[in-house]
Design goal:
The complex is a heterodimer of chains A (276) and B (345).
Chain A lengths: L1 H31 L2 H7 L3 H34 L5 H13 L2 H12 L6 H6 L8 H25 L3 H9 L4 H29 L3 H6 L10 H11 L1 H24 L13 H7 L1
Chain B lengths: L3 E8 L4 E8 L3 E5 L6 H9 L6 E6 L2 E5 L4 E2 L7 E4 L11 H8 L4 H7 L15 H14 L4 E5 L7 H17 L4 E5 L2 H7 L2 E6 L2 E6 L1 H6 L4 H6 L3 E9 L5 E5 L4 E4 L5 E7 L5 E3 L9 E13 L2 E6 L2 E6 H7 L6 E6 L5 E4 L4
Parallel strand pairs in B: 3-9, 3-10, 7-8, 8-9
Antiparallel strand pairs in B: 1-2, 1-4, 4-5, 5-6, 10-11, 12-13, 12-15, 13-14, 15-21, 16-20, 17-18, 17-20, 18-19
The chains are: A mainly alpha (276), B alpha+beta (345).
Chain lengths: 276, 345
């Protein structure tokens, strides 16, 4: 009995240590400067500019990710083809790639002296160190989070429902929009939340490829880095803001699976228990 | 020619499916054990599985022809498909499900199946029988030229089975379409279909009316599938015109069928009578032994004596005061004893 109590106690101790370690730094942000002070710092020009740049870049990049990532994920999920596993692995590669590598790679491809830089130059525009570069960097790093989740969501669909749609006279396009998309919506939303959270905190690839120009390419994360020499309180306020945004997105992503569970039918084994 | 004609071949996991079939304006049931390739036939007709060889035509329109490289996609085939668990779209109300197939005919289809009152419900709120009717209404709203039903009774519990089967029988009778249904249950097939085909390991063993399948099974599998007792033995013709079969357990059974060599003896349970003593009547075959099992099904009882199962009324069971373990005699006439060659198996 004593030994079992000791074991449980050590499990509890480990959990408490882990939680403390993870939460203490976040708490410190809010404890170091009084909350009122944090809020007033948010009116600072640097902060306002950073919020504007971050929101704009993240929203555009999120739109691109959904628009291109959704059909690509549907294709990969619904077709068996040679090299499918390789394609999925390549899509996931940016997940494990150091962001600095992503940044230098983007420069090598789209930078002024890069692979396609000359082509863009000839067409009269350059990408690096512009807002376009921020969007590209965020998209590059965040999109795998969405696409991976979207593939899983489409794979989990009941193929019989897609077959039924076809036999009822709907072509592949109508089947996608009216059956596959609504039924996979939960999984897609969870994936979008993850990629949004990753995109909003992007740092390494952005600073290498887009630089950190206030009002142009300086996102919230970059502003923290720029401010922590100049005005530590502003840096803390930015940090506090990002903690709140990230936590909100995480909670939303966790809530999504519970969403529309009541409208599902016999086709999900979970619902069958409830409805029989 | 208003008919569904198919002649297809494709290789499945452990055998090759080869089936030629013509279904007129009737209900044809493909029966067979699970894994016999029944669902694959339906999927091929609907355009969801591509056969390797052959041809499928509906009302003279070619849906599939391997030689001519014709393969119409499912949405162009006008084939109504009711899936095994009905495959209703869970995010749509009943009326939306039915209107998905054909908006103009939706109200009519709901009315035809008597489910107008369920129009606003979601599939998750329906009972098994109601789901089946929605699946049927949706398939019919497509205005199909043929109807396919995959195990229409399997998703139902035993309580509602009989009622839903009667409803389905009624609905199918009203249709003026070729209907191809698959089931592993011979009784369902016998009730619902005009003709029944027995499919085993991708081959059609026999296709006939349910009555003919019971009266003249082509092989032992068909006989046992329709519910007969099957005994293995060796047949030898006798001078009096009867055939004597020495069953593997040593007993001898007589039949009016002529045969010689290895055979299977098929006897239907309802041809077997049970008595305390061997009766002095026209029955030639008697098996004496203790009752090894006695199962009551409604007003009937299935009684096993040795290798023979007999079916008698519960009234007889009470009158004879039968119970498990008691020694009785199971009798059946030589005229009710079918012999089928054993080479077929």
């Amino acid at each position: 009995m004593i030994r079992r109590g000791l074991f449980t106690a050590s499990l509890v101790a480990a959990t408490v240590i882990a939680l403390t370690f993870l939460l203490l730094p976040l708490l410190a942000i809010f404890l170091r400067v009084p909350p009122g002070e944090l809020v007033s710092q948010l009116g600072n020009d640097v902060v306002v500019d950073a919020i504007r740049v971050t929101l704009k870049a993240t929203l555009i990049s999120q739109a691109l990710i959904l628009l291109v990532g959704t059909p690509a994920a549907y294709l990969i999920a619904s077709r068996a083809f040679r090299g499918r596993a390789l394609v999925v692995t390549l899509i996931e590669l940016p997940l494990v790639l150091p962001p600095a590598v992503a940044g230098i790679a983007l420069l090598a491809a789209f930078g002024r002296l890069g692979l396609l830089g000359g082509t863009f130059e000839a067409l009269g525009f350059s990408i690096s160190f512009t807002q376009t570069a921020v969007v590209l960097a965020v998209t590059y790093v965040a999109s795998p989070f969405y696409v991976r989740q979207a593939i899983a969501a489409f794979e989990a669909l009941d193929q019989t429902l897609l077959d039924a749609s076809r036999t009822l006279g709907a072509g592949p396009g109508r089947t996608f929009f009216q059956i596959a998309l609504p039924l996979a919506a939960r999984g897609l939303a969870a994936g979008a939340a993850l990629s949004f959270a990753r995109g909003i905190g992007e740092f390494g690839a952005t600073i290498m490829f887009a630089g950190s120009l206030q009002g142009l390419t300086q996102t919230l994360s970059l502003a923290i880095y720029a401010q922590f020499d100049l005005n530590f309180d502003v840096a803390l306020a930015l940090g506090g803001l990002l903690v709140l945004v990230s936590a909100t997105v995480l909670f939303l992503a966790k809530l999504i699976p519970a969403w529309t569970r009541s409208t599902s039918t016999s086709l999900s084994p979970f619902a069958r228990i409830g409805s029989s | 020619m208003d008919a569904l004609d198919l002649d297809i071949a494709l290789t499945l996991r452990s055998y090759r499916l080869e089936l030629a079939l013509s279904v007129g304006r009737e209900t044809f049931a493909l029966v067979g054990p699970s894994g016999a390739g029944k669902t694959t036939v339906l999927r091929a007709v609907a355009g969801l599985t591509r056969p390797e060889q052959g041809r499928i035509a509906l009302d003279g329109t070619v849906l599939f022809d391997a030689a001519k490289r014709i393969d119409r996609p499912p949405e162009e085939r006008r084939v109504g498909y009711v899936f095994q668990e009905y495959a209703l779209f869970p995010h749509m109300r009943v009326e939306q499900n039915v209107a998905y197939a054909g908006g103009r005919r939706a109200a009519e289809a709901l009315e035809r199946l008597g489910i107008t009152a369920l129009a606003k419900a979601y599939p998750g709120e329906l009972s098994g029988g109601e789901r089946q009717r929605v699946g049927l209404a949706r398939a019919l709203a497509r205005d199909p030229r043929a109807l396919l039903l995959d195990e229409p009774m399997s998703a139902l519990d035993t309580h509602t089975r009989a009622r839903v089967r009667a409803e389905l029988e009624h609905t199918l009778d009203q249709l003026d379409l070729p209907v191809l249904l698959v089931t592993h249950n011979f009784q369902d097939a016998a009730v619902l279909a005009d003709r029944v085909g027995v499919l085993v390991d991708g081959r059609l063993r026999q296709a006939d009316t349910p009555g003919e399948l019971v009266a003249a099974p082509a092989d032992p599998f068909v006989a046992s599938f329709t519910g007969a007792n099957i005994l293995a033995g060796r047949a030898a013709p006798r001078a009096d015109g009867l055939t004597a079969v020495t069953v593997d357990d040593g007993s001898v059974v007589y039949s009016v069928d002529s045969a010689a060599g290895p055979v299977h003896v098929a006897v239907y349970p309802w041809e077997v009578s049970i008595a305390r003593e061997a009766p002095d009547d026209s029955a030639l075959n008697h098996v004496r032994g203790p009752i090894t099992s006695l199962v009551t099904i409604g007003n009937r009882a299935r009684i096993q004596v040795g290798t023979i199962v007999g079916e008698v009324t519960t009234a007889s069971v009470e009158r004879l005061d039968l119970s498990e373990g008691e020694v009785v005699v199971a009798s059946f006439k030589a005229a009710a004893t079918r012999l089928v060659s054993r080479d077929d198996l």
